[in-house]
Structures are given as structure tokens and as C-alpha cells.
Amino acid sequence: MRVASLMNVLGRGWLLAERALQVFHSTARETRALKFNYPKGTFEAWAYMTCMETVSAILSQVSQVTFEDMTSSLLLIRASLWEYGLKKLYKLGEICQLVPTSNAPDENQINRITSGITQQSAGGDSEDQGRLLVATLMSKQQFTSKYLELGEMVIGAFKHAGRKRTACSVGLDMAKFHVELGQIEEAERLLSDMCSLYSPENWTIFSANTISLLAE
After folding, report:
1. Count of Cβ atoms closer than 10 Å to residue 17 Cβ
2. CA distances in angstroms from 77 to 55, 58, 66, 152, 168, listed in the order given
3. Residue 49: DSSP 8-state
4. Which residues, including other chains, have CB under 8 Å from residue 181's CB and lie 6 or more apart?
5. Is 83 exposed, middle or buried, given 0-12, 13-18 or 19+ CB atoms closer than 10 A?
6. Which value, in Å, is the radius of gyration of the alpha carbons in the chain?
């Protein structure tokens, strides 16, 4: 986090962002290889908060510039980091039993994760992200609200970066989440949006699969 803060001060947060996903993947591989014994959910919480902090560092450097002036690579970095954070947030939801398919939240697991976040927060944006994540894990309702909000951000970010297929993939996952919540109309809205993206690109197989989901 100190390195992230320093690079942000130097105006090079974008460079850190380019390497962030590599760091996440290599850290996951190394912890598995070395068989580190750490509390369940620790890596997911760290990865999620770091993704959010890194994107915040990027946006702080382009706050005076419209998104239309951002380079395509920078837009893609932002989208990719948010998507990785979305996946880790969902994994945390599974661990804490906050996803729609879970019966009841695992209070013991939630307490273990949130107490660790509180102890490790280093101040500044790190502390803010820690506080936000703790609040997100406090209930199913708060988790659901944050997950859906971030999901919409990811879809929009990939569309803006010109990665329609990835936007569609995330959209399908979000539609399934809405179905699990019993929010059929929201799922239909997302799936219809995905169809509108598939058709002009002649992605007939993907379009057919999406239409099939809509029919269900």
C-alpha cells in the first residue's frame, strides 16, 4: 500500500494499475504453493480492497479529464480491476453465506473477516475501503446492494473500453444473480441489453444462448 501511495503521489498510479492484476494472480499462486495458513477470506478481502484502492488512484489522476479523453488501455485497466474485485466480493459473499442461495449469514465467519480488516487498515484510502467492506459484509441486504452496484459499474466500464463481449459475460452473471434474488424483471432487462450487444456483432451463438435464457 505504501508503494501504491507513493506512485500515486508521483502521478504514476496508472503504471501500478497495469501490474496489479499480475500481482494478484502471482500472490494467489504463491500462497497456494507455499501452503500458507491464513484465515478463510483473507486473500479475497485483501484483493478486493486493493482493486478498489488502485482504481481510486487512477481516477484521482484523471479527475480533470473526461473519460472520453482516457486512453483505451487505461479504460480497460479500470474495467479489469473492477471485474477482479467483483469476483472476489462474490467469493467473500459465498464464504460469509451472504449470496442469495445461502440460507443465513455465517456470523462467525463475518466477524473473523471484519475484525481482521479493522486491525489491518493502514489509514487513508485503505482505511476507507476497509470500512466500506466491513459495512458491506454486515448483512445480506448490504452485500447484495454493493454487489449489484459494482456489477453495473463493471458492465459499463467494459462497454466504455470497447470490450462488449466481456461486458456481456458479466451481464449474464449479473442476470443470474437477479434471478436468484427473484428479480425477474431486472434479469430480463440485463439479458435484453446483452442481446442488443450480441446481434450487431453477429455473435449468433451467444445471442441464441441469451435469448434462450430470456425464454426461461
Report:
1. 23
2. 8, 9, 16, 16, 17
3. H
4. 100, 144
5. buried
6. 18
Give the DSSP letter string of 171-208: HHHHHHHHHHHT-HHHHHHHHHHHHHHHGGGT-HHHHH
* Whether the predicted pLDDT of 6 surpasses 90: no
Please report which confidence band the pLDDT of residue 56 belongs to, taking 50, 70 and 90 as the band edges.
confident
**What span, in angstroms and rounded, lies between the C-alpha atoms of 124 and 49?**
12
Q: How far is CA 11 from CA 3, 49, 61, 83, 108, in A?
A: 12, 21, 7, 24, 41
Torsion angle defined by CA atoms of residues 164, 43, 39 and 49, in that order, rounded to the nearest 10 degrees: -90
Sign of the CA dihedral running 177, 180, 181, 186:
positive
Please name which of 61, 98, 58 lies closest in space to residue 78, comparing C-alpha atoms: 58
- Is the pLDDT at 50 greater than 60? The verdict is yes
pTM, to two decimals: 0.81
Identify the pLDDT of residue 205.
45
CA pseudo-torsion sign 203, 206, 167, 191: positive
